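#struct-pred
JK: can someone run the complex with calcium ion? inputs below
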Amino acid sequence: MDRRNFITLLAGATLVGGCSKSQFEDKNININRNRKVRLKLATSWPDNFPIMGTGVVEFAKRVKEASGGSIEIEVYGKNRLVPALAVFDATSSGNIDIFHSGPYYWKGKNIALSIFGGVPFGMSPIETMSWFKNGGGLELWREIYDRYNLYPLLGGNTGPQMGGWFRKKIESLADLQGLKMRIPGLGGELFSRLGVNPILLPAGEIFTALERGMIDAAEWVGPALDISMGFYKVAKYYYSGWAEPGSILELTFNKHSWNKLSKEQQAIIEMASNELNSNMLYNFQSENSSALEKLKREGEIYIDKFPDEVTQKAKEESKKLMEEFASQNRDFERVWKSYSDFLNKTKEWSNISYKSYLEDRG
Ligand code: CA
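RT: done, structure tokens with the ligand placed:
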């Protein structure tokens, strides 16, 4: 061995020695910091609910794997710990650590929260994600949720939703007058401006209400989830929509439960939430495609867009509705400004890229 090689070898050995010592120390620190935590997560969906429910179970599994077992998240479907729509308050008070639901359910607490769930004639899924991540959406959301002792992470996206199932054909605005329709969130507010009587019903009660004619129409999600609800058996008219162009789901932590996690544990959860968020969109795309094919093959249904008269009126009313809420609620005004500024900027690009391409592709 010549002298130069000997020096290299010596330097290497010193380096390895140095590394082992600091790795040993880091490991000790991590063991203390990443103490095992067990967190309770409640959802607004039944156990094993397709895509949304199974997605959050997969999230918990991935977090456990990635954390080497230091984070265990127990997932409880609706009503097992708290009712579907009580998850917000139960997490806010610290009775549970995390909830998986959708911000559109919380408009009664603060109408501004519904913007985070999605807006009629608003942004597409990719535009919305871009607003959350790069346009200030996530910061605004966290700022408002902080007042409720909550810390939200993105927890999925349904992709574009359908307009709903109707027992009768809709040919004009007049046909909507007085209809009772299950539809939550801003979509519900908007349909009420079109003469519809919006009704908030939990998932398990919609089919029976529609079958018995207690309601005339129901909006749920899209083919993938609607098909298993059986709506096509009792309402033949299925319309595409503009009320929910890409609804956001949330994975929201009690702030104290979030803060007591180590930085490493928070990073793992954040990465897994990003994975859940994108995987859900991919799953909705493929499952919607398959279910649409099946519905068209097996059901005697009529699929169409709403008549232009209905869509134009809805667009006008939607603009007015947003302006009204903004004038009544300071939070809404701020969030809406951020959202609509981003939408106005990004839609130019979306129109010359996605819209043109989809039209050309046919
Ligand atoms: Ca919906």
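RT: quick notes.
The longest strand covers residues 150-157.
Residues 5-25 have pLDDT under 50 and may be disordered.
JK: thanks, will look after standup
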